[in-house]
Amino acid sequence: MNTQPYGLIGTAAQPNIQIPPKIKYVLYARKSTESEEKQVLSIDSQIKEMLQIAEREGLEIVDIRRESHSAKDSGQRPIFNEIVADLRSGRYSGILTWAPDRLSRNAGDLGTLVDLMDQKILFEIKTYGQKFTNSPNEKFLLMILCSQAKLENDNKSVNVKRGLRMRCEMGLWPAPAPRAI
């Protein structure tokens, strides 16, 4: 068995096979809103479910990171940015999270994760039902799923604006009417 952190093993009869190091995970749980009363159980339920998977599969979790922040805009989440820095420093080599959209709903943060995979810094992203490694097909699927989340965000904005225009055309206030004092 190869004991080096990341290397090749093989013989003349067999091609070299890359053996990844033992993956050290950060468990990342995120809810979209910073409001305490909204999605109150979301983060705790994500952590509970993912800890059960980690225990069942014998995954090494180094840290559990929680964040209440929208992933709509790239580079705006302090905890996510700390995780990226910790991945680059070697503290983690994998991310455990409920779903791909917990990691990214924008092209910038998604690009960062895929670049870390290409650089062999991030070896695996594991979600409730899937895992993504540095294989072309798995990275492609990850990009599709996160791009779908971006599309949902973009469509929500378009649909809200359309609804507000319609209210105005009907002679209604686009928001609650002002109150008399």
Structure overview:
There is one protein chain. The chain is of the alpha/beta class and 181 residues long. It has a single domain, classed as Resolvase, N-terminal catalytic domain (Rossmann fold). Helices cover 43% and strands 18% of the residues. It contains 5 helices and 7 strands; from the N terminus they run βββαβαβααββα. It has a 5-stranded mixed beta sheet, sandwiched between helices. Strands 1-2 form a two-stranded antiparallel ribbon. Strand 6 (124-126) and strand 7 form a beta hairpin. Helix 4 (107-118) packs antiparallel against helix 5 (136-169). Residues 1-5 have low confidence and may be disordered.
Structural class of the helices, strands and pairings? alpha/beta
What portion of residues is helical? 40-55%
The CATH class turns out to be: Alpha Beta
Rg over C-alpha atoms, rounded to the nearest angstrom? 21 Å
Secondary structure tally, helices: 5
- How many individual domains? 1
- The general outline is elongated
CATH level 3 topology? Rossmann fold
